[in-house]
Amino acid sequence: MIRPTRARRRIALSLAVSVALVGLMATSSSGAGVVNVSHAVTNQWTTGYEAAMTVRNDTGSTLTAWRLEFDMPHLVSSIWGAVLVSQVGNHVVIDGPAWQRNLAPGAIAKLGYVAGLSGARQEPVNCRVNGVACSFNGAPTSTTVPPTTVPPTTSTTVPPTTTTTVPPAGGVNLSYRTTDRWDGGYNAQIDIVNGGPSTGTAGP
């Protein structure tokens, strides 16, 4: 037969342990962060491109044997700072290098890769680290400068400009005016009016 006093002590002890475990779980959950992954294209050409990535552990605990996964349609041909485990279809799986398999809180792993292109480049999506969803952020996703479109040269019509030379009475009146103008040239008209009593003749 269990005495009432001992039963009460066992119940009180069980409740104390349960409260302690709940408190520990709440503290770990409230202090949890995320793993941030940045992706930036550093070079691009017609048939491929090069990109740099970082994996930053912003959680409150060490990330053991970290594994990065994401989806993209471009085939990875080489990688550095990490190990390419597989690429099946669009799904890419990458492991940390032998010298940095674990990431302490606040630690950053840097890696890069080269991939082929057979069309427009697409950004990686569906980022996961050790099976947990992560976010792409940080550096710009592309350093490629888009082509600059130069507008076609258009012709600008300028109102005609008239320049008139007033000769002495009875002399020859000479007038000049621009009838059209564009970026590379212009048209002009010259009028000669004989204001004297005699007929003008050509020189020798």
Work out the helicity level: 10-25%
The value of Rg in angstroms is 41 Å
Mean pLDDT: 73
Based on the coordinates given, report the CATH architecture of the domain at 35-136.
Answer: Sandwich
Protein topology:
Blueprint: H1 4-30, E1 35-45, E2 48-57, E3 67-71, E4 76-80, E5 83-88, E6 91-95, E7 108-116, E8 125-129, E9 132-133, E10 135-136, E11 161-165, E12 172-182, E13 185-194
Would you kindly provide a written description of the structure presented here, covering whatever features stand out?
The chain is mainly beta. Among the domains are: 35-136, Immunoglobulin-like (Sandwich); 161-194, no CATH class. Helices cover 13% and strands 42% of the residues. It contains one helix and 13 strands. The chain has a five-stranded mixed sheet, with no helix packed on it. Strands 5-6-3-8-9 form a five-stranded antiparallel sheet, with no helix packed on it. Strand 12 (172-182) and strand 13 form a beta hairpin. Residues 11-31 and 138-158 have low confidence and may be disordered.
Could you provide a short overview of the structure?
By secondary structure, the chain is mainly beta. Among the domains are: about 35-135, Immunoglobulin-like, CATH 2.60.40.290; about 160-195, no CATH class.
Features:
204 residues, five-stranded mixed β-sheet, single chain, five-stranded antiparallel β-sheet, Immunoglobulin-like, mainly beta, 13 strands
